[in-house]
Amino acid sequence: MEVVNALGRRKSAVARVFVSEGTGKITINKRDLAQYFPSTILQYVVKQPLNKLEVAEKYDIKVNLCGGGFTGQSQALRLAIARALVKINPEDKKALRSEGFMTRDSRSVERKKPGRPKARRRFQFSKR
């Protein structure tokens, strides 16, 4: 099998994934998954598509992650892994979509508007 690549985004985080056959090693920015995401919850989020298809020990994954915070990065990585798995085997798409791993969450931070302290917040109104 050749190397399959995919892209995942969430908020301002971008994950570029390169999947090849191997032993289940996930390397993020030249660091191990447990070292990059010390939180077990975020490690679980990243591995969700692999565990759903029961292929966690089958593929080696190299990742370039940039932008955003740790939650956005983990969810961007989950989307990228799911997209790569669908490129490898298109029959898996239905199972991954039913879990919501194939949907790109387009929510991002709303920009600050001029004449206001934040995006929607207005300065306090004074009647007198």
Automatic annotation (TrEMBL):
GO terms for biological process: translation. InterPro entries: Ribosomal_Su5_D2-typ_SF, Ribosomal_uS9, Ribosomal_uS9_bac/plastid, Ribosomal_uS9_CS, Ribsml_uS5_D2-typ_fold_subgr. GO terms for molecular function: RNA binding; structural constituent of ribosome. Residues 97-128 are annotated as: Disordered. Keywords: Ribonucleoprotein, Ribosomal protein. It comes from the Bacteria. PROSITE patterns: RIBOSOMAL_S9. Belongs to the universal ribosomal protein uS9 family. HAMAP family: Ribosomal_uS9_B. The gene is rpsI. Pfam families: Ribosomal_S9. One of its GO terms (cellular component) is cytosolic small ribosomal subunit. Residues 97-112 have a biased composition (Basic and acidic residues). This is Small ribosomal subunit protein uS9. Residues 113-128 have a biased composition (Basic residues).
